[in-house]
Amino acid sequence: MTQLESTTTPGLHPVEVTVNGQAREAEVEARLLLVHFLRQTLGLTGTHLGCDTTSCGACAVLVDGTPVKSCTMLAVQATGNEITTVEGLAQGGQLHPVQQAFHEEHGLQCGFCTPGMMLTSVALLEANPSPTDEEIRWALSGQICRCTGYQNIVHAVQSAATTMREA
Amino acid sequence: MYPPRFDYLAPSSVEEVVAALGEHEGAKVMAGGQSLIPVLKLRIASVDTVVDINGVPGLDGIEEEAGELRIGALVRHADAERSPLLASRYGLLGSTAPLVSDPLVRNRGTICGSLAHADPQGDWGSAMIAARATVVARGPSGERTIPVEELAVGPFMTTLAPDEVITEVRVPDPGPRTGGTYLKLERRVGDYATAAVAVQVTLENGHVREAGIALTGVGATNLRAAAAEDALRGSEPGEAAIREAASLAAAAADPQSDHRGSAEYKRNVVRVFCERGLRTAISAAQAGQE
């Protein structure tokens, strides 16, 4: 551990964020990534860390409603933001329509990419309630699924879109 | 992966940013962080102090002023992708935005940050060279403008001083009889370009008044294909001129063979994409002539 220490004075910085509607505060190192803050500091392990190189999108969370890769944002940068993780989707014991649709349409196999896929889908449907298949694929194109071949993910998002329009 | 430890400053004005850069040796500006955070995590680069500019107000505008488009340092790729102004009047930039990395990276990464990062695989460098853009850099002695073509001097190296920050990029209004496009070959979304070509053509009286052509991923920096531009300027925009310009652009490319393809292959991609791009740009310019 000591060999990793740089010559700069390690300081702690306050983070004040709203995560899934709940105000959270912590003092963190500036180098702490948002994904580690969520998983380790807050214990919200639904956000998965995949490639860790900004390629796979497994770590996607919503920052003020916009999907970003939480492995490529500093926790300190989230101050003042509202973060939504997969744990924030279900409300009152009811799955979010997107979660229900991923379940019903088999939009997952191993499930590793699923939290990120669902969060990006939620953001997409918020902005575009009736997306085409092409628009869904485009919106999810920063995220990798190694199981499904994407087909059932697209079906799931379409199914969720229908449910949400009818709600 | 964790980045090495660094100090973190989040100033709330450009003046404070410049002061922070001057006071802290080894400081680096962070805007979207979509390149800087990965290179820190991979420990390809290290910084002593990160100066985060996300809290600086007034840097997130896309505005036209005095015959120029001004894109602030905190304008994200996604903002450009959704801008009706870019889609309509600055076609080259409008077609570049959706091809940068992937949608999640575009939500956070910035245009000016991409220019400052000076990755020869960067898309905006070529688009901005072809569009004849300049960046505005603020330092301790004030503001200066740098043509994007002169910004990068090598891979990840720029003419910016350590205590200068890019506050915006300015793109001259190309006028109504202009067309432009960006064509990129990538193995999958989010990959770096195997090769890419930015073109912008302005017509006048049936001839090419101005042409901008720049190449991505085939040199130590984004390359301006000046000989190809010269050949087009003043010419009648037909197949013969397009083919000649594309050959000259391919000759200007200086690609390396790697896992994305051989040098010969990439050079040929440049030629083909340049032809296609010029056809698209010229058609758009002719349509704008009516």
Could you explain the architecture of this structure?
The complex is a heterodimer of chains A (167) and B (290). Chain A is an alpha+beta fold and 167 residues long. In chain A, 32% of the residues lie in helices and 16% in strands. Chain A has helices spanning 34-41, 97-104, 114-127, 133-139, 151-166; strands at 12-19, 22-29, 60-63, 66-69, 82-84. In chain A, helix 2 (97-104) crosses helix 5 (151-166). The longest helix of chain B has 25 residues, at 263-287. Chain B contains 11 helices and 14 strands. In chain B, the strands form 4 sheets. In chain B, strands 4-5-10-6-7 form a 5-stranded antiparallel sheet, with helices on both faces. A 4-stranded antiparallel sheet of chain B has the order 11-12-13-14. In chain B, strands 1-3-2 form a 3-stranded parallel sheet, with helices on one face. Chain B is α+β, with helices and mostly antiparallel strands and 290 residues long. Chain B folds into 3 domains: 7-52, Uridine Diphospho-n-acetylenolpyruvylglucosamine Reductase, domain 2; 62-172, Uridine Diphospho-n-acetylenolpyruvylglucosamine Reductase, domain 3, CATH 3.30.465.10; 178-285, 2-Layer Sandwich (Enolase-like, domain 1), CATH 3.30.390. In chain B, 57% of the residues are buried. Classes of the chains: A alpha+beta (167), B alpha+beta (290). The A-B interface holds A 4-11, 13, 29-33, 36, 52-55, 57, 60, 66-69, 71-74, 76-77, 120, 138-143 and B 1-8, 10, 33-34, 37-38, 40-42, 46, 48-50, 52, 54, 78, 101-105, 107-108, 189-190.
